[in-house]
Please model this.
Amino acid sequence: MTSDLKASAAALPIAVRTRSLLADKRTRPLVLLGLVLVVFSVVRVATGANELTSAGTLEAALALSIPLGLAGLGGLWAERAGVVNIGLEGMMIMGTWGAGWAGSTYGPWQGLAAGVAFGAIGGLMHAVATVTFGVDHIVSGVAINLLGLGITQFLAVQVLHNPTQSGEIPSMGTFTVPLLPGWFASIGAHHWFAVSDLANVLFAIVDKPAYFTVMAVALLPISYFVLWRTAFGLRLRACGEAPYAAETLGVNVYKYKYLAVIASGALAGFGGAFLAIWSGFYHDGQTQGYGFIGLAAMIFGNWRPAGLAVGAGLFGYTNGLQLRSPPAVHALLLVLVIALAAYSAWLLYRRRWTSGGISAVCTLLVLWWFLKTHELEQHIVSATPYVTTLLVLALASQRLRPPAADGIPYRRGQGK
Amino acid sequence: MELRGITKRFPGVVANHDIDITVRAGTVHAIVGENGAGKSTLMKTLFGMHKPDEGTIAVNGQQVTFSSPADAIAEGVGMVHQHFQLADNLTVTENVVLGMEPTSRGFLSFGAARTRIRELGRQYGLEVDPDALVEELGVGDRQRVEILKVLYRGARILILDEPTAVLVPQEVNELFGALRELKGQGLTVIFISHKLDEVLSVADAVTVIRGGTTVATIDPEVTSARQLAELMVGSELPSPATGESTVTDVDVLRVENLCLVSADGRSLLEGISFTIHKGEVLGIAGVEGNGQAELVEAVMGMRQAATGTVDLGGSDMSSWTTRRRREAGIGYIPEDRSRYGLLLDAPLWENRILGHQTERPNSKGLLIDAAGAKADAQRIVDEYDVRTPSIDVAASALSGGNQQKLIVGREMSGEPQLLIAAHPTRGVDVGAQAAIWDLLRAARSRGLAVLLVSADLDELIGLSDTLRVILRGRLVASADPATVTPEELGSAMTGAGAAA
Model:
């Protein structure tokens, strides 16, 4: 009894401090990331599934997240300016083809440039349709998706003389970070609780990154600074929130929408080019719906760069894990149990008995599933990234705040 | 600022012609006119949102041409729009600096912007927290942000389009304080309104616009609100007074012991009983929020009464749906026309169908009869003097008064036995008000029973044959409209004393 009291008294300040750190806007993301790291470490140690946070898994996760993140960024640029861009997938496809063609003919850098340019052309088409002609954004986006697929298949036959794939794209080259990778690798090899997991994360980031990986990751903070810290970005966002207000202040709304949608296409094209160059060649159907998932990641991220990075990372991680080591996916169930248990506890603490009760029952069911099985069936394993994304989207999209004029056609001088 | 011979045509209409206005620097100059008189068109011309077809604009003696708002801003002309032009999800600072952002090395310097906004706020009595999101602000603060936007751009001439339309009296006083402050510091304010008391209290000069042209510029010191109103309307001011009584002894609506309880168990209406006869207007007076809206909705069947009966022309309709009640002959003018009365983005003829979609001439069997509805919409437009270029324009293109006339016309077609009119002339101009009063009087003399809810006491006293006062969900007093004064009625509404 007394020892219980002592323990809870010792735990109390930590809990209180965690709470105040959580409440502070600046520290909240770090605290949450820390919690996630601890949960994964616990699960790794408990199940022995070292693949859960191995450097290999995390490197695959990073590589798989990047195209999604780029597509999401593309969506962010367009939607912040008030244009819904469901054509990201088509623009991405054009990017993969552009990179495949120019990459196999001239080299990887030219391939990247061509991929970006092709995506930008897709963006330009979307801008002409939606901004100049006031076509419904969804209709135009769907048309771009069909067009992107059709054009690339046509060009593949005409230019590459191979309807399904391009020749090989030479590797882009990597650069070496001094010392750090060695250190992180040796720490990671010890499988220490939390420390090794963190070391593996850092190792995945600094281990011979390809140039375009660094560029892609850098685009995230760059987008944030451009959109939120410059006059250009403020005007662009104003076009997505209140275009007629922007118009009365002398902002050329058409111009900003055009630039935003072209940038959006260029980013999606970069994402496509990344896929092609990373695989070493272009092939038909390479994007696998990444454009749509990127858009979902952006919505999950509440139309913000950091949020969409988390969304893309979530999908990339589960995808990387199921590709690299299917058995480790089973351990994810325990992560789910912990997350659900925490959620139930929070609901019950808030006296929301019904939802809390349902959530607790789900926790027990998943726990039972985890304990009763030793591995998951292959078709469940390959569906993991999609199921996870779906679940997280469904549970987390409670308080989303899209730009106010997103998807609403704008005509100059017709405001009220 | 000087305007000479401004004419602006739109396809099918001449919105402004031969407008002449001279605004002296450092004054508050009001421009008044009925809705649809062309004030808003004139303002758009002044602010460069479109070019006049004829005429010239001069600022400080220099002739200028505005081809976009940016040109007007450059000449020191700023506009505060009637519908706020603000981005809700951006901060006050972001909204204010948009389009003229202070930057250092390519990045926005929010610090400098904040300081400038605080300074302007202090200087003119327009203080707002620069870091608040606009969506968190109330209407009065939003208007300050609008004015700050204009001042931040260095405007010396401010155009305010119906600035008081959305404000409560307290906020109106604050706004007028700020306007006097601006004037005191040498700025010029052009103030557009149709609220005459306000205009007379704040303006140094008043220009009246009627039918798209300027008819007079007067000195508010020596003009009364009534004279000004007559200039605006161009004729004797209408009065709501009805002629002789047309009340018969045939019951149309009989409400007995109606009680209504809210979802959380509060009593909204208690023991309401009244009868309206053929040809009778029953007026319900009350301070807003005392159960008028709930009473109307209970009679319409939009809310389910807890107890009591509602009887129309001898048949108990307590359990009827709203649809059935309407078909049985109840017309309904809702209190908020843009939310409940119209589809603003739909053309007039589709609005004609609303609420009458099961009746001829709007439908045949299960299908909508577009031709019939259009023909009938045209009839309403003609008979009820709805001023519109055609029945195919969206309802939002009409002024409030014309929208309301369309609703009245719609509800009167199909010869209802009972008309429920909630605030029928709220927010419409004097001309449309007179027209709607005429329509109600004419319908009454044809034997229509009317349940009238209004906040305008003159309207209530003038139109009603019988007056009842509602207070906290109960009918607490009745008054004879022939003898009661607005003051007596007002005190009965607040429960201060019983009316005659």
Notes: Confidence is low (pLDDT under 50) at residues 1-7 of chain A.
